[in-house]
Design brief:
By secondary structure, this protein is mainly β. The protein is about 0% helix and about 55% strand. The protein has no helices and eleven strands.
Length: about 120
């Protein structure tokens, strides 16, 4: 059974930093690409960052230069380091992976950035 469990969200002032973690179980973590999405109130869920099994990363334009995605295969965990946070980064952040065409999601972690 695939499980993705996010942690690390919270309330932070603009300009601050947070690091999100997503612990995976039930998958061969090292061969799976992993992604972070976010969904703000009243908006569609959007892709924030992704990382391949080989460690290649890609980012949404809105977070380039501020966010860094990384993975630790030994810990079966993917991270999202978020720096220079802005109020518009406020959202629920979700971890995601796709296995044989099926998408799996964590429960999400709330990030709130105050101005």
């Amino acid at each position: 059974q695939v499980q993705l469990v996010e942690s690390g969200g919270g309330l932070v002032q603009a300009g601050g930093s947070l690091r999100l973690s997503c612990a995976a179980s039930g998958i061969i973590f090292s061969i799976n690409a992993m992604h972070w999405y976010r969904q703000a109130p009243g908006k569609q869920r959007e892709l924030v960052a992704g990382i391949t099994s080989g460690g290649s990363a890609n980012y949404a334009d809105s977070v380039k230069g501020r966010f860094t995605i990384s993975r630790d295969n030994a810990k079966r965990t993917v991270y999202l380091q978020m720096n220079s946070l802005k109020p518009e980064d406020t959202a629920v952040y979700y971890c995601n992976t796709v296995i044989f065409g099926g998408g799996y999601w964590g429960q999400g972690t709330q990030v709130t950035v105050s101005s």
